[in-house]
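Posting here for the record, re: NAP.
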Amino acid sequence: MGYLLLTGATGLLGRYLMRDLLTAGVPLAVLVRRSRRKTPGARVEAAIRSWEEMEGRTFERPVVLEGDITQPDFGLTPDQTKWAAENVNAMLHNAASLSFVSTGRHAEPWRSNVDGTKHALEFCRQANIRKMFQVSTAYVSGIRDGRVYEHELRTGQEFANPYEESKVEAEELVRDCKHLDSVTVFRPAIIIGDSKSGVTFTYHNYYVMLELAHKLTEQLGSQDFTGRGVANYINLDAKSEWNKNLVPVDWVSAVMSHVITHPEHHGQTYHLTPRLPISVRLMRDVIEQVNNLYGINFGKPVKIENNQSLALELFHSHSEVYSSYWRADSIFDSTNTQRAAPHLICPHVDRDMLVRLSEAAIENKFGWKDPVVDEPAKVLGA
Ligand SMILES: NC(=O)c1ccc[n+]([C@@H]2O[C@H](COP(=O)([O-])OP(=O)(O)OC[C@H]3O[C@@H](n4cnc5c(N)ncnc54)[C@H](OP(=O)(O)O)[C@@H]3O)[C@@H](O)[C@H]2O)c1
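Prediction output follows.
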C-alpha cells in the first residue's frame, strides 16, 4: 500500500485525521510548515504526543515533509518530490485558509485555497499521484434556499464571503484535473470540537462569537440582582429562528477515514452535514449560559458613540467579519454519506453537547497546550 499525503495535519480536522488514519494503519505522510516557534518535526511530534496522552496508547509517526501549499512544488526539494513519486499514491488535500475577508485575489483565502490547490495538483502531476481526496465545505452552496445536493456545485448562486467562492474554485480545479484518475470530495458543515471530550485545537466560526462574548463579559460584565451579567449591549446580527449546521470533528474525521480506507466509496462527493440543524437561538442561549449572562439581543449591533469600550469595539468589528456566517443555512442532502457510512450516525448537537464544548473552550482559554517535546519527529530530507 502506498502512502497517503495529508496537508493541514496541524489544524483541527487534520489532527483528528492523523489520529484516525494512523489508527486504521494507513501509511501516512504529512506536509507541515514551520510555525513561529516550532519546526514541522516538533509540531507533528507534539500533536501526536497529545493524542498519546489523551488516549493512553502509542501511535506510529508519519513521514514529515516540510512544505507550504502557497509555494510552487510546496517548496519541497527535488529529492523530497522524488520520494513522493516513489512512495505516495494519494493526496488528502485538507489545508486551507478559513479567512472570511480578503483584500484581493493575491491574498488569503485565495492564496491558500486556489493557488494552494493548483500547487497540490501540480505536485500530484510531478509525483504521478492519481488519487485525490479534496476537503471542501458544504458552504460551496453559497446563499441558496431549499435542498442542496451532493452532485451540485455551481448553480448560479451568490456567495456570502470570498472563502466560500475560493472553495468552489478549488473544487472545480480538482474536478477538472486531467491527470487524476479518482477525485473524492468531502464537504463538512461547520466543524466544532469533539462530541465526547469537547476538545478542539483551533477556534473558528461558532467559537469566535463565544470567545468574543466571553472576553467582553470578562471586561464589562457586572452582575445584577439575578446573579448573572447583563449582556444587552451584545447584538447577534441574526434571526433567532435561523438554522445552522454544526458537526463534531470526531464524526467528520471518522466518516472521512472510513471512506478513504474503503476504495469502493472513492470518486463520490460527501456532504458531512448533520441530520438535524440547530437554531441560532440555541447557540445564543448556550453562549449566555456558559458565560452566566442574559440579554444578548438579535439584530444589528448598535454603535454606542460615547464610552464605547475597546472590547465592545472589537466585538463589533469581529461581528462584521462574521456577519456572512449569520444567515439561514440551506438544507444539505447527505444521501452519499449515509449510504457509504450508515453505521456512523452524526451525533446530534443538542444543548448539552454545545454547553460541554463551550465550557471546554473556555477552560482551555480558547487555545491548546501540547506537551513539550525534546525529540522532534524526523523530517524527510532535513
Ligand atoms: N472549520 C470548519 O468549520 C470547516 C467547515 C467546513 C470545511 N472546512 C475545511 O476543512 C479543512 C480543515 O479545516 P480546519 O477547521 O481543520 O482548519 P484549521 O484548524 O484552521 O487548519 C488549517 C490547516 O491548514 C494548514 N495550512 C493553512 N495554510 C497553509 C499553508 N500555506 N501551507 C501549509 N499548511 C497550511 C494549517 O497549518 P498551520 O497550523 O501551519 O496554520 C492547518 O494545519 C479546510 O479545508 C476547511 O476549508 C472547515
